[in-house]
Specification:
alpha/beta, 6-stranded parallel β-sheet, 10 helices
């Protein structure tokens, strides 16, 4: 069989279409992956709604891809058919631009994004630049691996680059698709982990995920509660509401950092809070393929698991709507049959 099924968008603001396409051949420097599972991320709305400048249609979204390499292009070394592999948001790097030469591969001037610059994982096969590909352990099922290639890497990589050390007080703001993984990573990395979310009903889940302390931001002042604990060395903000971020900044310790990984439109920051405690606000990009590989390996060793709702490819429109509703617990994953 020389064809495959994909879920494509022919143009913005339209439903996904399941179509048959020829199975693509990998060009030099690329590999072809037989997709087993692909997560649906809120960022896929950039394709669905036509919000990314210059995007070309038809386009197959998807940047949480887990599967197996089944063909390699010319010039590819270190990879072979049969290897388990994943691809995340970062669509590879050129190696020659100034950011790449300085080691800032995430900032490559080519700005390739999986599922936006080229077709992603909402289909049975996809082709990716070899620099975008990560290995993942045999013991990690593809459905478990897929969300770790976006929500997982974003939280894990922010935490391990936050400057916090084992034993430090680290708070995770939000308990959704990113936050439920962030709490697990923070606990497994040895931080005294505080979960902050809206509603007392979320406390049992927060503690199940590894939080030592839970703060209900509806009935408590999260900044004041964090200061009672001595202040948070790091707060990882996974929410997309700027007011919620603003409300926690006063809970930072001296030299504390608010790490922003949720894409809110804006956030208000108090210069006094920053100045008087030498505090900082910092954004963190998800990471490159080697960061994805580290995330997958750590998750397998430490027992970090994404909580997923699983849909077959043919139910892609229902699955996407479920993700956009905000009611999924907590990630939505497509599987290929």
């Amino acid at each position: 069989m020389n064809t495959m099924r994909v879920a494509q968008l022919s143009r913005p603001k339209q439903p996904f279409e399941i179509v048959e396409r020829p199975i693509p051949q990998p060009a030099p420097g690329t590999v072809r992956i037989k997709v087993a599972a692909c997560g649906i991320c809120h960022s896929d709305a950039l394709v669905k709604e036509g919000l990314w400048p210059g995007i070309q249609y038809p386009r197959v979204p998807g940047h949480e891809i887990a599967g197996t390499i089944d063909a390699i292009g010319d010039g590819v070394t270190g990879w072979s058919p049969g290897q388990r592999a994943g691809v995340g948001w970062h669509g590879g790097y050129c190696g020659g631009c100034d950011p790449c030469r300085r080691g800032d591969l995430f900032a490559c001037e080519t700005q390739q994004v999986t599922g936006i610059s080229f077709d992603g994982g909402y289909g049975e096969y996809m082709v990716a630049p070899v620099s975008a590909v990560a290995r993942f352990p045999d013991e990690l099922p593809p459905v478990d691996a897929a969300p770790l290639l976006c929500a997982g890497i974003t939280t894990f990589n922010a935490l391990r680059n936050s400057g916090a050390r084992p034993g430090d007080l680290v708070a995770v703001l939000g308990l959704g698709g990113l936050g439920h993984l962030g709490v697990q990573f923070a606990a497994k990395l040895g931080f005294k982990t505080v979960a902050i979310a809206r509603g007392k009903d979320k406390e049992p889940l927060a503690r199940q995920l590894g939080a030592a302390i839970y703060i209900d931001s509806q009935s408590q002042d999260p900044a004041a509660e964090l200061q009672k604990l001595g202040g948070a060395n790091v707060i990882i903000s996974t929410v997309t509401v700027g007011d919620a971020m603003s409300a926690v900044q006063g809970g930072l310790s001296i030299n504390g950092t608010l790490m922003v990984i949720g894409a809110a439109e804006s956030v208000q920051v108090s210069p006094i809070v920053l100045l008087m405690g030498r505090r900082s606000v910092k954004g963190w990009y998800s990471g490159t393929s080697i960061d994805s590989q580290d995330t997958l390996a750590f998750s397998a060793r430490a027992g970090v698991h994404s909580m997923n709702e699983i849909f077959p490819l043919e139910r892609v429109n229902e699955a996407y709507d479920r993700m956009m509703s905000g009611k999924a617990r907590f990630r939505v994953v497509l599987t290929m049959k």
